[in-house]
Specification:
The structure holds two protein chains of two kinds. Chain A is an alpha/beta fold. Chain A contains nine helices and eight strands. Helix content of chain B is 42%, strand content 16%. The chains are: A alpha/beta, B alpha/beta. Chains A and B meet through helix 5 of A and helix 11 of B.
Chain lengths: 262, 399
């Protein structure tokens, strides 16, 4: 097994912080709007199955957010450039929450570096009508209400900032700002994306937290129906972040998909 | 010193309901607004503004959205009426929340139109807007100030360009033929005002020679004013008091008791303004990373103002005396009020514009008229002597 590495790379002129752990089939993991959280157990568990390459999005962690960079389009091209720069072949492209939206934007553009696509409770498409909120307004509710929607067990999502180092708080605040920059309006989706999902010609797995109230499993069914041949698998005991809340179940399901067993 | 009378045109009949729901803004359903009652209030408030012209006060209006604290939804509309109903008062818009406006050229047009209509009496505030204005506008709070400055530059260019049309293809705004009609009467633009609290804002305003104002925050604003003076000095000019504005609630009466009573009623505005549903109080990107770190590290606490003795003042519950100790309220007899303003003027290093919150909800028409009239008659003449009256062309000072 490779040593745990937190490194920086320069991609398209943007300096990114990157976690690169494990060995074997490369898996490019694009993190959630809340952040990467590599200290949680999911990442090392997953790195026992494959090589996990997980960049911090621009504006998160120590990744640079240049003034010109302001859209999910930019992120999609940035990570396509990263995949080429790392010379990934037959990699698995995985995105969770906001990262799932980026991964889908990549897959409709250029799937050449990838053999499989997994989207974990992704944001990014609009299914319902003008009055329907497919994606909960995470920025329009009290923190406690958000936790109830995002976690099967809300207590697990609570954060005590007063006990946190200021540098760590600053990193989280930067990420929070970047999330708004990329997803404020239209709210956390691209109105045009659903129309082009038929272009995705990779075996696609949708992994969904059974208790996700940010984007529900029925929203996941909408994704499944829009991507040819996609399969939807629900993870029990998990909300919007199954990799954090049920890391063993998450890694079992995703690991099997990476290995091509299902 | 100039004095600008100001009222938010509150809809106080819904305050109790808003307070019980924990938000007077954004999420308080408008069934709590009775249009017939609103009809009476809007007309009453405009009458009170009109009275200022007769007693020698200038006028300031602002705007907020989706709130029971303020019925003014458009500074342009309010000033359009007051431009016709007044003759002498200068008309301050403080201001248009230009980072929340999708069409800055429209802002330039409306401001130019007001300036022409009023015979050059417009003072033009271009403001960032409060954090809870993000939700009603649904504007992106991330990079808000980048958008602010692009809108600002475009508006001033649109107002001062006489050989257009010109092209504007920026980061946020795109036009191919900017050429506003009418153009403003005051050349090259009406005086420009900003609001703020930070040292950075002070520096940015100084670089443009704009008037900088701050609201209700007491001596917390001093570092911003100092930064402005310092930056102006670096750029080779001296910022006089006419570059600085301060807004306070003022209650003046024939007796101290009467002044306090009026101030207490007017201060209802200050107590209700911060009562906002939690997620709309600090949208991501609105405040700096450093400010957010400090807030999160501190955990949930009360108001952001401390009084002259370092005691925190919770705006939601403070008494008149507590507000007075924080320079948020000036109250009492004309002598009292004059002395308090004079003392604050010294503490802050000199300010040339008092923004006079003279109505704030439950202060009724009779009391409001008395407050305005007594201030105009007894306090205003003495304040004129306090510091040199600013010229009417604010931009000239920067040249």
């Amino acid at each position: 097994m490779r040593l745990t590495v937190s490194t920086t790379v320069s991609v398209a002129g943007v300096t990114l912080q990157l976690e690169d752990r494990g060995s074997g089939r490369p898996l490019l993991f694009l993190h959630a709007g809340e952040g990467l959280a590599p200290e949680r157990p999911w990442l090392d568990l997953l790195a026992r199955r494959c090589r996990v390459i997980a960049p911090w999005h621009p504006g998160y962690g120590t990744s640079e957010l240049p003034a010109w960079l302001n859209s999910v389009d930019d992120l999609a091209y940035l990570y396509l450039d990263l995949a080429a720069q790392l010379d990934l072949k037959d990699a698995v492209l995985v995105g969770a929450c906001f990262g799932g939206w980026i991964a889908a934007e990549m897959a409709v553009r250029d799937p050449r570096r990838f053999g499989r696509l997994a989207l974990v409770d992704p944001l990014g498409i609009k299914l319902g009508g003008v009055h329907d909120r497919d994606i909960a307004d995470m920025h329009g509710m009290a923190r406690a209400d958000y936790l109830k929607l995002a976690w099967a067990n809300p207590a697990k999502g609570a954060v005590d900032y007063t006990a946190m180092a200021e540098t760590e708080i600053a990193a989280q605040v930067r990420g929070r700002d970047a999330f708004a920059l990329f997803g404020w309006k239209p709210y956390m989706h691209n109105p045009r994306l659903k129309r082009w999902l038929h272009r995705i010609d990779l075996p696609t797995l949708l992994l969904w937290g059974e208790a996700d109230g940010i984007v529900t499993p029925s929203y996941g069914a909408g994704w499944r129906d829009a991507i040819p041949g996609a399969r939807l698998e629900v993870i029990a005991g998990a909300g919007h972040f199954p990799h954090w809340e049920q890391p063993e179940r998450f890694v079992e399901a995703l690991g099997a998909f990476v290995a091509g067993n299902r | 010193m100039r004095v600008w009378y100001f009222s938010e045109m509150a809809y106080h009949p819904a305050w109790e309901e808003g307070l019980s729901r924990g938000s007077l803004r954004v999420v308080l359903p408008n069934r709590n607004f009775d249009p017939q009652v609103g009809h009476g209030l809007l007309n009453r408030y405009l009458d009170e503004f009109g009275l200022c012209d007769e007693v020698g006060l200038d006028i300031m209006v602002n705007e907020h959205h989706s709130t029971a604290t303020c019925l003014t939804v458009s500074v342009s509309m309010a000033l359009a009426i007051l431009a016709r109903e007044t003759r002498k008062a200068r008309l301050l818009s403080l201001g248009t929340p230009i980072a929340n406006r999708p069409d800055p050229v429209r802002v330039a047009e409306e401001m130019a139109w007001l300036d022409v209509l009023s015979g050059g009496r417009l003072e033009m505030g271009l403001v960032k807007g409060a954090p809870y204005e993000i939700a009603p506008a649904n504007s992106n709070p991330a990079r808000l100030m980048r958008r602010y400055w692009e809108a600002h530059d475009l508006i001033l260019k649109a107002m001062s360009t006489t050989d257009g049309p010109f092209n504007w293809e920026g980061e946020f705004f795109h036009y191919r033929n900017v050429n506003i009609w009418p153009r403003p009467l005051q050349q090259p633009t009406p005086p420009v005002w900003m609001t703020g609290l930070s040292v950075e804002t002070g520096r940015m305003a100084a670089e443009r020679g704009h008037v900088i104002g701050t609201l209700l925050s007491g001596a917390i604003a001093k570092p911003m004013f100092d930064a402005y003076r310092k930056r102006a000095q670096e750029l080779g000019w001296t910022a006089g008091p006419d570059r600085f504005a301060y807004a306070a609630v003022v209650g003046v009466g024939e007796t101290r008791e009467e002044g306090y009573r009026r101030a207490d009623l007017a201060a209802g505005y200050v107590r209700t303004a911060p009562v906002v549903y939690e997620p709309f109080t600090n949208p991501p990107g609105y405040n700096s990373v450093g400010a957010n770190v400090a807030m999160l590290k501190a955990g949930p606490k009360g108001g952001f103002v401390v009084d002259r003795h370092g005691n925190p003042v919770d705006h939601r519950t403070a008494t008149v005396e507590q507000f007075m100790a924080a320079d948020t309220v000036f109250a009492g007899t004309p002598d009292d009020v004059y002395n308090q303003i004079r003392a604050f003027n010294e503490r802050i290093g000199g300010f040339g514009h008092l923004l006079f919150f003279g109505q704030g909800g439950f202060l009724d028409h009779k009391d409001t008229v008395a407050n305005i009239t007594l201030f105009g008659r007894e306090v205003m003449p003495r304040l004129r002597e306090l510091s040199p009256a600013p010229g009417t062309s604010a931009t000239a000072a920067a040249e």
